[in-house]
Amino acid sequence: MFKRAFLFALCLATLAASASFAETAVDPEVGEETTIVEDYVEDDGMSEIVGKADQERPSIEGLSPLYLTKIKLMTATGTAASIRVAQDETSKSLGTVSKDETVTIYKVYPAFVLVEYNGIVGFVKRTCIDENCTAIDPETTPPYGVMMMKYVATTAAVTPIHTDPDDASEIFPIVVGVGSKLAIIDFVDGYAKVLYWRSYGYVDATLLTDLTVVSPTDVPMSEDTPISAFSSFFKYNNGVELNDGRVKNIVRSCELMTRVLQPSEQLDFNAQIGPYKKANGYFPAPVLIDGGSQPGYGGGTCQSSSTLYNTVRQLPGITIVYRRPHGPGCARYLPMHQDAAVGSDSLNFIFRNDYSFPIRILAESTGEGVITIQIFRAD
Hints:
Layout lengths: L22 E5 L3 E9 L27 E4 L9 E5 L8 E6 L3 E7 L3 E6 L2 E6 L8 E2 L15 E5 L25 E4 L1 E3 L2 E6 L2 E6 L3 E6 L14 E6 L9 H15 L1 E3 L4 E3 H4 L11 E6 L2 E6 L3 H12 L5 E5 L27 E4 L5 E6 L5 E8 L2
Antiparallel strand pairs: 1-2, 2-19, 3-6, 3-9, 4-5, 6-7, 7-8, 10-11, 10-15, 12-13, 13-14, 16-24, 17-23, 18-22, 19-20, 21-22, 23-24
């Protein structure tokens, strides 16, 4: 068990949809009986940008090996993954590693991992590796993909997210509204570093207020100190048909997620945050149906469940009972392998509180660009 002191995007058209990834829904306001696979969200086109501040050389000097994993390509015809000189799939290839071969991971980034293979050191896209990584030292290494947050703050103004800690740098499409909570990785040169889709983003710290430290252990400094936190970003007021319903569904699911879990108690997302119906406060939103986008109730709740998944994974006293990704490409509003799809018997997220104390889940969204979930001790 690792120590706490360490730290939906559009699925690919090649999604391996099957009966086990579907549910049947009938609603007179949505249409005839349909096969719902997952909620649909448009790719923002900037989900894998690496700013100047986060560009690094392919070196493992001074680093300890973290994980062993195999190359697992998404396409049936793929045979090898490129090891590149930079976190850019168009950068120079230093070599290749064949499917099912094992690589050693030294560092994990939002879209890439730094690996060593047969003396070659470089960057491999996370879409090319198996998420079932083996931690070399599980006592000091968090599970693969876990990203620890150090702070939570509230936006005091309309808040743009930059690609670098520099006001002159490019701005990501999603601008966060006033009064929104943000989970923060760290501060860099006066900017709060956040996880934006499959990139890092930077927020001017002068636009933030009510800064709270996330406890580095399971013993918080006060009852107001969370023991884990996580944020994910979504589009709003973008003119896309039914996107407003998706945003409302995220806000509604936050209301239903906020609760206390006693020791040994489970949270079953479909059972307790669903059912995803009008009678439960949900709205029609884009969902992926038989390979195309159509209206369906509950679209957007997969982003809520995925954000919760990333929040609870930071806690060694929480046991994941059941989780499935959104097909081989996962949801692009989070790093590869970090999503948790919901909406059917086979798409659900279930976890159990195995701590000796109750936990309180606080899920919040103003509906303006971000959902943030915090977990507190409730004893």
